[in-house]
Amino acid sequence: MQPEGSTGARAADRVLILNPESGSQNHVDDVVELGGEHGFDIRKTEESGDAKRLARDAAPTADLIAAVGGDGTVNGVVNGIAAADELETTTLAVVPTGTGNNFATNIGIRGIEHAFTVLEEGRRRSIDVGAANDRRFVNSCVGGITAEASRKTTSESKADLGVLAYVKNTLETVGSFDSLPLRVETAAGPNGRRTQAWTGNAIFVLIGNCRRFTGARTAQANVEDGLLEVTIVEDVPAVNLLGEAAFKRLFGGDSSYIVRRRTPSLAIESTRDAITYSLDGEMLETQTLHLETNPRTLRVAVGDGYEPDPDDGVL
Ligand SMILES: Nc1ncnc2c1ncn2[C@@H]1O[C@H](COP(=O)(O)OP(=O)(O)OP(=O)(O)O)[C@@H](O)[C@H]1O
What we know:
The protein is of the alpha+beta class.
């Protein structure tokens, strides 16, 4: 049986992986119609894990895979393409139908129709992919967010703060904060940067591939430099975190609670319990995490607004 939206001959070349439950869930008809017009074989996710499985199955024959959903769906699709070992031969397109859509925004995709224009006419760029133990991420990996706070974060807050919305919600919903006793070791990097170790109590550790953590939603990092942007939020007295302005100040340039590093790889060891990490919004619990970038390994269709190096990126 041909899957819904299939156009036969080109079906295996172009596969669209659609999460019908993402965002406000009213995008399905529009996407199925546009996908059909653009020659996509359409496969819908039915439960957690499907985006990865469908992408892994499609990648060996597909030239172009469109991930339709939010950051979690993009994450699943990228993990699936990686599991098939097809990162360098399959192009990823993103059709943003999630609530946050951080990654889509960073690569210059403005909406559903625009995404289809971009996948036909847009530039292709090869961007860095983050690896965290055996999983991949494109945007960010954040330790210290609770799974419950992550689930309860509103779309308005995500639209305002991006992934920092989860951090803010964790601060607001967790009564007494247990800080994370960590050892963070960053590898030697360019410009004479040497291996460095940081040991102490943190409340969050944030690693950005596509994203840096300055408090502004649009703080895109250079995604083609082979480096991860590491932000450690040191144990802060709770009183310093009250209110929106205080929260944004915490991540500001002159914050005394922030340690920043840029590195091609790092290891984070919790000296107590396992920590919950959010990889593009998908959870992972572990005591030891090894992170690295695979420089310029994911081919992505990008919009005109995408800038590989949004600023000189000096931290
Ligand atoms: N058919 C489905 N039913 C229920 N959950 C699903 C289904 N398909 C995928 N999922 C789950 O949806 C989540 C991904 O949602 P996604 O992140 O793409 O959208 P979102 O949360 O609305 O947007 P964003 O992450 O950008 O805020 C994953 O955790 C996945 O397990």
